[in-house]
């Protein structure tokens, strides 16, 4: 049930969860499944960043963009989709996917699992103790018999630039919730948010200028992935400038002016800074338990904060993998570990791939960037594998030479790479870029997490004619 604040009584639970985003919801669900009582604290909308300002609205904006791009590559269909997107309809569809920024459904889900929701700002107040301050200032005290889980996520990190607060720049929140397409949009950054939002708003009618400090975009993937994304953005009409930074911004009569390191001044209607994330741990009482406010929380593989026997940090707050699906995975691991420790299990399964170890954070993290073309990866890049000391071989294949790709899209452009550990002959990483490759990445994740030997993968026959046939082509290339 949802509780009003209570100034007279403390409330005791087995587990108290700070943050009701997807990660916090899953921690609460898993500890409830383990027979423990749970309270969950949220100061904003239940469902968190993913539901209202990240995963769901961004993909709702991008899906029509990608569908139109794919349709334009199919002979006999491209003439039917030559007109502009109906931006108003796309935004309305986005609003439906965010439940119009109302959280009734998510609150109902929390109630359905038997957890108690407290609305307000939660702060640690010493070991196993949390205070919840409501909007009206009243305070409720929650105590945890076994664990407190910090699932507060991250916020956009803005650079320190003269005049930036007065400009009121977009962050990922404004970019995913805007009610119209600005005529001119400057996007600062080269990561996932920057490239996805540049893709979306360029297609929805904005003239986009993407400013990248480094030499390319998506620098945590194989270099060729970012190169193809940049090519596609430019082909779509966006301007992409690399090797530049913004040194100052100002807004005059509604127009934003951005001064760059090369002295150029750009003007736009809005400017989006997608320049990283910071942990939302600055005002949650970390100082009351001997930790630095505003810090990333270092955890072991059961997601327990190092040096503590009761405090857990799950999802973005521990900085292991800033991805919703990975945070939910961590939540399943943490919930199982908390329940096991509460039951007095003497030895948790924390060995490699054990039930209480978030091993995938190190070895098999999947990610899809929903640009056009899509970029998808799992595990390590070539550079990461070599830096880790593995003896490896990168095997590349041009996706245009796969029969299924040619059927999927006329003039299909894409590339695949797998990283083979030569000592064990298993995969350490896989990267795909091309239309529709997001649906290929789970097979790669299974192969990596399962440590499937190359000789066994040879017997995993891909259906013909599909884009998945690239697996056979990669293995043939490896065998020579």
TrEMBL record:
Pfam family, one: Pyr_redox_2
Residues annotated as binding FAD: 59, 122, 316
Ranges for domain Pyridine nucleotide-disulphide oxidoreductase dimerisation: 365-471
Enzyme category, top tier: oxidoreductase
SUPFAM superfamilies: FAD/NAD(P)-binding domain, FAD/NAD-linked reductases, dimerisation (C-terminal) domain
Cofactor(s) listed in the protein's UniProt record: FAD
EC number in record: 1.-.-.-
Comment on bound cofactor: Binds 1 FAD per subunit.
GO terms for biological process, alphabetical: 2-oxoglutarate metabolic process
Name assigned to this protein: NAD(P)/FAD-dependent oxidoreductase
InterPro entries: Class-I_Pyr_Nuc-Dis_Oxidored (IPR050151), FAD/NAD-bd_sf (IPR036188), FAD/NAD-binding_dom (IPR023753), FAD/NAD-linked_Rdtase_dimer_sf (IPR016156), Pyr_nuc-diS_OxRdtase (IPR001100), Pyr_nucl-diS_OxRdtase_dimer (IPR004099)
Listed GO MF terms: dihydrolipoyl dehydrogenase (NADH) activity; flavin adenine dinucleotide binding
Family, similarity comment: Belongs to the class-I pyridine nucleotide-disulfide oxidoreductase family.
Keyword Flavoprotein: yes
Keyword terms, alphabetized: FAD, Flavoprotein, NAD, Nucleotide-binding, Oxidoreductase
Disulfide bond annotation, renumbered to this chain: 50-55
Binding positions for NAD(+) per the UniProt entry: 189-196, 276
Keyword Flavoprotein: yes
FAD/NAD(P)-binding domain span: 13-324
Lineage: Bacteria, Bacillati, Actinomycetota, Actinomycetes, Kitasatosporales
